[in-house]
User: Fold these one by one.
Assistant:
Number 1:
Amino acid sequence: RTRSIVRGVGSYLPRRKLTNQDLEKLVETSHDWIVQRTGIEERHIAEDDETTSVLGIKAAEAALADAGLTADDIDLVICATSTPDYTFPSTATMIQTGLGMTHGAAFDLQAVCTGFVYAVSTADKFLQSGSHKRALVIGAETFSRILDWNDRTTCVLFGDGAGALVLEAQEGEGTSADRGVLTSHLRSDGRYRDKLYVDGGPGSTKTTGVLKMEGREVFKFAVGMVADVVQDAFKATGTSADELKWFVPHQANKRIITASADKLGIAPEKVVITVNKHGNTSAASIPLALDAARKDGRIQDGDLVMIEAIGGGFTWGSALIRW
Ligand code: ACO
């Protein structure tokens, strides 16, 4: 059977850093409160010229370089984002152009913070079907542009960034068939819309709007939903927490990550945490964490890696990848 193998990973963070100390000057908050409740120490904020597509292009270029490939080798571009440059055209087609591609297909996918898991799962199904050969799977976001910078309950949590994977269809038995995306599990339940949403859009205020969140409510649901989809992935593949080499969750909040790992019986040393460095970057957070753990030598070829996320909708999902 065909598997979607990871060929490369890359990421990009905007130039400007915003520390918790900087935030103390903007809203009534403190470094200690933010670190204790979220684990976040700093985040990066895009300048005007650093749009979501610009961040996505840089992450995609890094992933292609890591794979030793060029844009000519890619025939599918999927960009997970909730903060596109424009309502349309898609950010993915802008990234495609930025990479110098005029061939293949490109589209955006919107599942908020679960966007990257949805995009990996979608790309995997395209590649397995035989319709496409190599996919750039990108998570790129500029949540700083949809934050209410006077609302301390949300503005301290998020940051901007992008990350990308190159997935390649490989066929046949043997070692390559045991690698790649082994399984993925996607869920959603729209009844929870008002727990986490943006209060604007073409069908409502006709403005972009700002992010609204009932943080404590989201927290309450998050750990259980994460555990469910991760268990689904273990069941589907006959694996368990013991066999997992790395747990790479959506980087929203250190307490959610730690509580989820604990509930699943995943040892703390297997958990990859980068939220301290970039805050919650929504769909970009998993590839940012994957890139960090690959580049610092933690993720090695053959390692079993679980990714998972929960986000607005609610949406949630997992994917188990043999690197
Ligand atoms: N600085 C200082 N104090 C603050 C801040 C702040 N930035 N924000 C809120 N507070 C205050 C509140 O006003 C409240 O004060 P009060 O007790 O006088 O009313 C107090 O701190 C406690 O507020 P809670 O909201 O109860 O704090 P909690 O411990 O729940 O932490 C947090 C808040 C960090 C948002 C937490 O609920 C959380 O992490 N939720 C999950 C949110 C999340 O991760 N969402 C993203 C997932 S999906 C996605 O990625 C899009």
Number 2:
Amino acid sequence: HGYFTYDPGFVSTASCKSKITFIDGEKGVLLHRGYPIAQLATQTDYLQVCYLLLNGDLPNAEQYANFKKRVTYHTMVHEQINSLFKAFRRDSHPMAIMCGIAGALSAFYHDNLDIYDPEHRELTALRLIAKMPTLAAMAYKYSIGQPFMSPKNDLSYAGNFLHMMFATPCEEYVVNPVIEKALDRIFILHADHEQNASTSSVRLAGSSGANPYACIAAGIASLWGPAHGGANEACLRMLERIGTVDRIPEFIAKAKDKKDPFRLMGFGHRVYKNYDPRATVMRDTCHEVLKELNIKDHPILDVAVELERIARSDEYFIERKLYPNVDFYSGIILNAIGIPTNMFTVIFALARTIGWITHWIEMNEEADSRIGRPRQIYIGSPTRDVRPINERE
Ligand code: CMC
């Protein structure tokens, strides 16, 4: 088998060169285009981060205003998309709807799309940034049987999403600035994370020259799993299942038991062997939001804080360098601001779309970009001959 390097899970394989995001997992560092994530999360907004990822640097005031105008121009979706939603069962998981609807966008933008033209690639990015909140909110409205709310382009990116989620034709939704800021920060913290499973899926799908909207659907599918973006939903469900602080030791024991498939959701990371820098900002934001919303008793937060304390002083977690990751506190914030649990991973997908499409663009900019084609170590049967059907065992 000497020809290929065997690397299950791609633990030590660099699949590409990239200028977008840098991670030092040992030190807990995350930089986008050189800027530390904590500074971006506290001193910029999500649309500035989108601009940064796409263009390589933060925008000045004029560039920002222009970018915002270009994005908001695309917030509406084609009327036929409304009919598409109606094909789904009302109780469909919203991630299932998002896989289908994002893929279906390729049917609207295919024949006139030239992926070799940089302007077309940029237009694809703008459309996706603009339309994902609209589609995500539509998935929610559909599930609760309320009419879709059109985007309001004079609101901020996060404010518009909240409006489409919570306003109704009979009642205006007044955006709470605390909630708006917290949601925007959650978007920033999820914007990109180099070659994770979903981004690698988008790149691999895109490496064949496939339609970019279909590639984004591949990313959404990959993100859905509980080992990846689905962990935020799974984490909140776990915290609710634990319920009270006195039950934590029972769940810690389950997580350590190698015969039990249970894992502490929101703990551990392939790359971070130190505190996930996104989790640090998320934890601070969580405390801020609950304080500003005047939520004094939050039993789930109490369970989370105590679970973190116990796990971090436990030999099993210390030895394996298992720290809280980005998904550990995000669910508590989303829950406090009224987002239903099955929408958590949709929020992640919405925010990660900028990362996916930036990687897709970067890949397409390379002159020597090749189709992704991993090899394998074959361990099946040696060569044998087909026998007539009535002579087979
Ligand atoms: N609870 C209990 N044990 C764990 C956990 C956990 N959450 N995570 C890892 N371990 C153990 C694992 O059993 C193994 O132990 P041993 O060496 O005795 O066999 C060791 O730690 C190494 O784990 P691994 O599975 O080899 O690590 P990995 O790099 O393949 O997996 C992970 C990384 C994130 C999938 C994993 O830590 C996990 O399943 N965590 C829970 C799910 C989660 O929170 N995912 C979100 C990740 S961050 C956001 C994102 O990517 O979307």
